[in-house]
């Protein structure tokens, strides 16, 4: 599952990089939570939570509805 999640994050990455940001996969837990780390401009952006929940989480849950319960950002 981790490899599949990383593959989707690789597809999302160019959109974040256009705005000077990036995303790094951190972990995938048994309770189906994906942890990511926002980097660059995304790390301090006031819209970071919207990026994680409305963007990354929405895409991952659409791709893996039974395998991703949530996406959380870590520092």
Key features of this structure:
75 residues, alpha+beta, GMP Synthetase, Chain A, domain 3, three-stranded mixed sheet, 3 strands, 27% strand, globular
Structure description:
This protein is α+β, with helices and mostly antiparallel strands and 75 residues long. It has a single domain, classed as GMP Synthetase, Chain A, domain 3, CATH 3.30.300. The chain has a three-stranded mixed β-sheet. β1 and β2 form a beta hairpin. The termini are far apart.
Task: Summarize the model shown.
With 75 residues, this protein is an alpha+beta fold. The protein has helices at 2-17, 41-44, 48-63, and strands spanning 21-28, 33-40, 70-73.
Total beta strands = 3
- The CATH class turns out to be Alpha Beta
| Largest sheet entry | 3 strands, mixed
Question: How confident is the prediction overall: mean pLDDT?
Answer: 96
CATH topology: GMP Synthetase, Chain A, domain 3
Indicate how many domains the architecture comprises.
1
Shape assignment: globular
Strand adjacency order, main sheet: 1-2-3
**Poorly predicted residue ranges:** none
Q: In terms of topology, how is this protein built?
A:
Blueprint (H helix, E strand, L loop, with lengths): L1 H16 L3 E8 L4 E8 H4 L3 H16 L6 E4 L2
Parallel strand pairs: 2-3
Antiparallel strand pairs: 1-2
